[in-house]
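Reopening this ticket.

The earlier resolution said the output was attached, but the attachment link was broken on my side. Pasting everything inline this time so it's all in one place.
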Amino acid sequence: MKSDLGKEIISFYDNLRKRQQLDEELKMTLSNFFSLIDEKADRKELKFSNDDWKRLGLLAGRSLKNTENLWKLTNFIAEKF
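Inline output:
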């Protein structure tokens, strides 16, 4: 019984570490994406309405809170691009 608990703790720890790595990769990907968006907007290569910019900012902020909000951001990005 104690052995099973130890295995589950190790499994939980390994999954948490993988999740942490994926979260870091996602943050880097989002950072790169928004840097590119800003660059294209500065060059006038990308034109969003004020409402689109507000929605993008709102969704980006919320995306850090949970996966559902991250999906909403992803769907918005896919819709616009």
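Reporter confirms the inline version is readable. The two ends are 53 Å apart (CA to CA). The mean pLDDT is 90.
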